[in-house]
Amino acid sequence: MAQNLFLAIDLGTSSVKAAVVDHHGVVLASTVKDYPLIYTEDQGIEQDPHAWWRAIHEAVPAVLSHPRVDRKNIVAVANTAQWSGTICLGE
Fold first, then answer.
1. pTM (2 decimals)?
2. pLDDT for position 1
3. E strands in the chain
């Protein structure tokens, strides 16, 4: 019987973390991809959503291509993100 695996993605404040975990909670593969904080002149902090997306596009294939991971056995994806993020669209 195939082993059920779970893909976890955490979009954090300064990096995205991705991991594949088995049904016992054993981490089979994991990676971290950093992205910068952008400090504004008015004491604000921003991030580029494109940097998040690039990091996710690097992290997920990295864990799915690990030799211990059979991607056909991924049965669920869990995704978390930093708290209270706002993405403005347009002007």
1. 0.86
2. 58
3. 5-11, 15-22, 27-34, 38-39, 45-46, 74-81
